[in-house]
Amino acid sequence: MHKGIKCLACGEPIWGTLEDAAKEKGFDEAALKRFVEELNRLQDSGVS
After folding, report:
1. Which DSSP state fits 6?
2. Most buried of 10, 12, 25, 47, CB within 10 angstroms?
3. Cα angle 1, 16, 44; round to 5
């Protein structure tokens, strides 16, 4: 949500992929890669 992308776990239906949602918000390929890396770090750290 901090990146302007709808919550992926709150139950609101989202059609498409994380990539689709990020590109709708103007993410380029480099920004999308950083975003995915950030999400992976959060998952690895146990932050929910």
Report:
1. P
2. 25
3. 50
